[in-house]
Amino acid sequence: MSDVSVETEGLRAFGATNAAIAGDIAGAGNMDVVASVSAMTPVFGLIGADYLMSFAAAQVLQARDIQDLSDKYAKLSQAAFSSATNYDVTDLGNAGDLGKAAGEIGGVL
């Protein structure tokens, strides 16, 4: 295995950025589909009922897709924070083990 060096603060900054992006995307997808269709109903009337049904279905699908994208960014953020913590814990554990081993053989670490 090759040497691994991880800047955990950079990883946490990446996580924070992706959390903010997730929030922005979720905000953009926060739409009131019922209000949109209700506002358009008087304009299209009975003649445009088929269009309004299609429009409403498209709006619902769009809102779902936007929420899915937001969820992906949120999961990426959580994974980055979790990975940073795991790297820190592992690094501290390995340093402790090396210090203990060095102490047992009379060295100083």
From TrEMBL:
Name of the protein this chain belongs to: ESX-1 secretion-associated protein
Lineage: Bacteria, Bacillati, Actinomycetota, Actinomycetes, Mycobacteriales
InterPro entries linked to this entry: EspC (IPR022536)
GO process annotations (BP): protein secretion
Protein origin, superkingdom: Bacteria
Annotated Pfam families: T7SS_ESX_EspC
